[in-house]
Amino acid sequence: MAEWKSICELDEIPRMGSRVVRSTSGNIAIFRTSGGEVFALRDQCPHKGGPLSQGLVHGNQVTCPLHGWKLRLDTGEAVAPDEGCTRRYPVRIDSGTVFLQL
User: Where is the Rieske domain (predicted)?
Assistant: First the structure.
């Protein structure tokens, strides 16, 4: 059964930035958009495994720092013409605290 884990306070994730969470199944990148929305993706681009947490956040997308692939933060899917996806994790905010479902 999946459980919700307290990760950090929302203010600890910069707008248009990310924070990395280490897990037994690999690193997870928690992203915050300029509008304050929070998303979580496996911290690995489907193309060549680049660290998405080090990419540029723009709108509801992140651009991989290695080869410029763009991925949607809400689904983890690559933006055309690129193909592929990375795992998405559910997140929620409760009283200013970010929770991640593992």
Answer: 4-100
